[in-house]
Amino acid sequence: MGGRLYFRVARVTAAVALAGAAALAAVPASAAPTGKGGWGQGTPYLALGDSIAFGYTPSAVTTAAQYADAANFTSYANDVATALNLRLVNASCPGETTGSMINTSAISNGCENTLGQAGGYRTAYPLHVSYTGSQLSFAVHFLRSHPATRLVTIDIGANDAFVCQETTKDQCLNLAEFGAVLTQIGKNLTTIYHALRVEGRYTGALVAVDYYALSYADPVQMGEAQQLDQTINNVTHQFHGIVADGFGVFQAMSAGAQGDPCAAGLLIAYPASSGQTGCNIHPSPLGHELLAASIESALLNVAPPLARPSRG
């Protein structure tokens, strides 16, 4: 046994070690879910969330024609599906907030609407899965009609903070403002998880992918990312979910680059032709591979009853 999961985790571990950072612990081959024909056995895997789960890439590296076909965008979800032999159904939407995931009329950061103004990604371009209504309503319906679903992953919440930054004069640096955002994220996540577990009747593995910091050398960005992740983690555990440590794996790999995920190659670098410098906020292929490894590693510790399909 061992398969692709073991080799992915081992490869990421070696890469991080070369960067001079603490890494994911090496996983014995006998402990890893098998690859093709093994753990997933081709059963459904539902990926939920925002632009990270979607695999969004910015216009500086993407043509208009590419946006017209969602198949041009891949993310950690594709890596996980391949490694664990799962059939991916990716319902994520770039710009989704915890509020707009529940109700399409709620403010989003470019999914259903753009800061409350009509027009968003769903209006202009196709998603990986076509559906009407909210992402959450689709998820509940999918889980009810596909009781053998083996895995659900979700990353959601960062766009709530971005909306606050874009709609407040101080860019949401006020502790009370940011605290209110975190409180609302917690409430919305409770609604989301309750719907998945109760209305969707889903009892399988539920994995929240927490967020990386855009700079591990900046204490403000570090602190905000950690507070956001703590909010996500607390609610996830309340609903018997587990957390994939996206924050930690990016921090480990960035250590050899003075805490800069861009310099470490984990974010999408702007080409010189774009006239922009540095990186976009979205993960590069290597960044997505790290996030996938964190999910696969987290699944190794799931209690057997939780790791089985919901029913039958």
* CATH arch. level architecture: 3-Layer(aba) Sandwich
> Under CATH, the topology is which?
Rossmann fold
Derived from helix and strand composition plus strand pairing, the structural class reads alpha/beta
Superfamily (CATH H level) name: SGNH hydrolase
**Principal-axis shape:** globular
Rounded mean pLDDT is 87
Structural domain tally: 1
Strand proportion, as a percent range, falls in 5-15%
Q: Can you describe this structure?
A:
It is a single chain. With 312 residues, the chain is an alpha/beta fold. The chain is 44% helix and 11% strand. It has 13 helices and nine strands. The strands form three sheets. Strands 2-1-5-6-7 form a five-stranded parallel sheet, sandwiched between helices. It has a two-stranded antiparallel sheet with strand order 3-4. A two-stranded antiparallel sheet has the order 8-9. β6, α10 and β7 form a beta-alpha-beta unit.
Gist of the model:
By secondary structure, the protein is an alpha/beta fold. The chain has helices spanning 3-18, 51-54, 64-67, 76-84, 98-102, 121-124, 135-145, 158-167, 175-199, 219-238, 246-254, 285-299, 304-307; strands spanning 44-49, 87-90, 113-114, 117-118, 151-155, 205-209, 242-244, 267-269, 279-283.
Which properties best describe this structure?
disordered N terminus; Rossmann fold; disordered C terminus; 11% strand; alpha/beta; 9 strands; two-stranded antiparallel sheet; 44% helix; 312 residues; five-stranded parallel beta sheet
Indicate the topology.
Elements: H1 3-18, E1 44-49, H2 51-54, H3 64-67, H4 76-84, E2 87-90, H5 98-102, E3 113-114, E4 117-118, H6 121-124, H7 135-145, E5 151-155, H8 158-167, H9 175-199, E6 205-209, H10 219-238, E7 242-244, H11 246-254, E8 267-269, E9 279-283, H12 285-299, H13 304-307
Helix pairs in contact: 1-12, 4-12, 7-9, 9-10
